[in-house]
Amino acid sequence: MKYVKFSPIFLAGFLTACGGGDGQDEGTPALIDTSISGLAIDGHLARATVFIDSNNDGTRNAWEPFAFTDNQGYYSYNPLTDTDYCRDDVSAELAQYCLRSNTDISSAVIRVDGGYDILTGEPFEGQMARRVGLDPSEEHIDSSVISPLTTLLVNVDDSQRYIVMEAIGISENDLDVDYASEDNINPRLLNTALKVHKTVTVLADTLKDNYDSIGSDFGTPNDASKYVYDEIANYVLQSNMSLDEVLGNNAALASIADRSEESVRALYQQKDFEMPADLGSESNPERLSRAINVASQISPTVDVLINRNASSFTQEEAIGGARVLESLIIKSINENGEDSSLNTGLQFIMNENNADLVTALVQGMAEDDASVSELARNDFSGDDFDSEEEIGSAAGLPEGATPFTQIGGMQLRISDLDLGYAPDHLDDSEVELFFIGDPTAENGTLIACAKHIENAHIDGSLGEGSTRGEIIEGHWSLLGTNVQNQGSYSLLLTLTFLGSTYQSIIKPAGSEMIDNSEYKVLRFDFDGEIAEWHSAEGFLQTSSLPETSDDCEARLPSRIGI
Predict the structure, then answer these.
(1) What are 333-341's contacts with CB under 8 Å, separation 24+?
(2) Which of 122, 121, 170 is nearest to 147 (CA)?
(3) Does residue 534 form part of some domain?
């Protein structure tokens, strides 16, 4: 995950898209029509992409079916609302959550990546999976839970499955437990799942930083976590060690990282990609050792934040603990080798003398207005971390940040204030969003106008991929709202452009004075990239809706005089 201020990623992602799916693989003839339902959990994953990885290569090929998870992490069928997203008569908004198999294969891997972790409110990093049997005679298959626990078993032979589960400390029934359920948190399984996935995330991110074709070039897995999960399972099988012993052992993690890297390098060689220096080599002497050192501290840190043996465990404890942990993972992902605050944060959590302060921090992070991003920017030292009364302020949203509420019938213009520079690097990016629906609605349809001008010339010629105005359709929903709480700090967007569908999220980030004018600051995430954009007027009542791209161009006049 990269934090980029004033970057026009959102628009560039849409306006340079070419539509369609990933790759040009030849498809398998459609033989069956079976819906596959389930639930994706790290915490529950909203708007993640779920797909049938029929050739188990870790990426969605153009012919492999996919869907999105709904706001509660379900796809195809939501038992909480009794909604069948695969019914013939569902709306287009609901149909995006329906996953159907149209190929006659006895076994397939269902993979999940992208989207947003409801526990933390942050973009989900990595990839999870589960192997399922596909029976062409069945109209519906319930693959149930997809989680870090099921991911460890994807490529384990049935004869060795029990050995791995025993090392993890789980049973077959545990694989289908909704351990992040709002009404019945299971701290033992939540603790184990977080240990596994966050350790994988730290190691996989280091691999991806070094081997940047992963997830970006054709024929590569979406994420390097595929390799790390497989090697953890292999190490458990070969070592006869428990999962906790493996995850806390630097030598074991070094072996797992080395083996994962070998798989990546073999893929690079197969694809004839330019091969970077080996991690840990003379030119990269510290990158892998730093990641292993951090990864080895994840397991004991989770034990402090999520008490696996608690006789009672609340949703607030789960949310607060997961958010504190996520702030450290963000630090690890963004670490440049010079920032020591990650170690400071890990030491703060692990110091037994700080037990009361850590409890207060977890409680503060469970509040609706707590911000993982703000805590990730903190260095875990100073006055905020000396007092139980003050520690909550270390994680609060910036002043002026208020929840989204009653946005149906409203419009919002957000702008990148970076206009580049003359004569040939002028930039001008803005989006105007129109939220259709009743004022009290929790979701509705969406129309957006997008302008993206990058590297334009003073003579009026635009850079590649630029546009003066495009109309985009989609849907919006407020994450986590209910009858008692109609405000949300997370506004989810589903946007369709050039035949492709994208998920994004907007969060309030306070206000800022710029050139004697006050702007609302909004954190805008698109495809794992995060930017802060500004709105001069905030939400306004919609007066009229655009109908064409020409309308959008008229609504978003040039701010750079061309």
Answers:
(1) 333/1, 333/125, 333/201, 333/202, 333/205, 334/1, 334/2, 334/3, 334/376, 335/290, 337/286, 337/290, 341/378, 341/379, 341/380, 341/381
(2) 170
(3) yes
Q: Which two tokens stand for residue 111?
A: 């993979």
Write a three-state SS string for 135-180. CCCCCEEEEEEECHHHHHCCCCCHHHHHHHHHHHCCCCHHHHCCCC
C-alpha distances out from residue 277 to 200, 283, 285, 465, Å: 22, 7, 10, 33
**Residue 541 to residue 400: CA distance in whole angstroms:** 21
Contacts of 98 (CB under 8 A, 6+ apart): 35, 67, 75, 76, 85, 86, 90
Number of domains in the chain: 1
pLDDT at 90 over 80: yes
pLDDT digits (tens, 9 = 90+) for 41-65: 999 999 999 999 988 999 998 889 9
Q: How far is it, in rounded angstroms, from Cα 80 to Cα 94? A: 15
Cα of first residue to Cα of last residue in the chain, in angstroms, is 34
The residue ranges of DSSP E strands in 4-73, in sequence order, are 34-40, 45-46, 49-53, 66-68
Residue 350 placed within a domain:
no
Would you say 114 and 124 are in contact if contact means Cβ atoms under 8 Å apart? Answer: yes
Task: Give the predicted TM-score (pTM) of the model.
Answer: 0.88
Domain residue limits at 467 = 410-555
CA–CA distance, 256 with 304 (Å, rounded to integer): 25
Smallest CA-to-CA distance from 532 within 166, 7, 149 is with 7
Tokens of 525: 């995430």
CA neighbor of 108 nearest in space, from 169, 65, 167, 171: 65
